[in-house]
Design brief:
mainly alpha, about 75% helix, single chain
Length: about 80
């Protein structure tokens, strides 16, 4: 019985550590999302009157990465089950 209780205690402690780390990472994800929203709101730091095809390529690369992330999160595209 002692081994069973020790195992349950260890599993509960492991779960608490995992949950704590998970919540920490969620907080960091939210920080990054806020940064990206501000970045997009400010036209990625570019003057809209000076946009060229290089800027379009940069925006496209960022969009591609974000699309991969959202596809992963929502199990779409190559991540679909």
């Amino acid at each position: 019985m002692k081994k069973t209780n020790d195992l349950r205690t260890a599993m509960a402690a492991s779960h608490e550590k995992a949950l704590s780390k998970f919540m920490e990472q969620i907080g960091e994800i939210n920080e990054r999302l806020s940064e990206l929203q501000a970045f997009a709101d400010e036209h990625m730091g570019y003057n809209p009157d000076e946009i060229n095809w290089g800027h379009v390529g940069t925006a496209g690369s960022i969009l591609e990465t974000l699309t991969e992330l959202t596809d992963c999160a929502y199990k779409r595209g190559e991540y679909a089950e």
